[in-house]
Amino acid sequence: MFNRRLLVISMLVAGCGFATSGFAQEVKRSEGVLGKQPRLEMRETRGPARQSEQRMLRQIDSDGDMLISLEEFTARGTANYERQFNRADSDDDGLVSADEARPRRRGPAEDIDTAALRECIAENGGLTETAEDRFAAADKDGDGSLSQEEFFMQLEQRAYDKFARMDTDADGQLTGAELAANMQGRNEQRRIVRQCVSEQVAPFL
Question: Which of 5, 27, 107, 162 is the most exposed place for a label (fewest CB within 10 A)?
Fold first, then answer.
């Protein structure tokens, strides 16, 4: 039952993260900025969370202005895309199938009503996008697999979409407050998904 929870959580928590391993790692690091923001903003985030934000800023902020631009954000999200593609293409046929793109998690999910789970998450204000949704959107020619070009375009589009959600004042830069809000949103998404999964599996416990 624990493995079933892992499978569904991995699919739905990804609504606020990035799909591929390279970009997903950046989401886990959450973000933070000093720069042009008042120092009081950084005091709102303490301990390990603050340290992880600073690490992400150092890695993505290529021009040293202590802000993250769309170009910097997208460059990080699509970095090493060929290696990401080759890792996903486990059978080396030059394409990534739906099975290859699916998150690697053990355990079946036959006890989970996906439609009801999506409804619960949406009702609680969470994001309901799954790996299958992202794959379908990326498969532009509808042949059931992703070429390297489609794979790259997926990474790029997801970076654009992620940046737009985070850039709440639409000024083209991610500030400390926006980065902190994104981190809070991810934590809330996890809470909502876990709550809804618990409601789904409770009758089977």
Answer: 107
- For residue 104, give both structure tokens: 């690697």
Neighbours of 117 (CB within 10 A): 22
Q: Find the radius of gyration of the CA atoms of the chain.
A: 18
**Which residues, in sequence order, are bridge partners of residue 68?**
174
Q: 90 or 61, which is more confident?
A: 90
CB contact set of 15 (below 8 Å; sequence gap of 6+): 126, 127, 128, 129, 189
- Say what angle helices 21-28 and 81-88 make with each other, to 10 degrees: 110
Buried b / exposed e across 48-60, counting CB within 10 Å, b at 16+?
A: ebbebbbebbeeb
pLDDT tens digit sequence for 35-59: 333 333 333 444 444 556 677 777 8
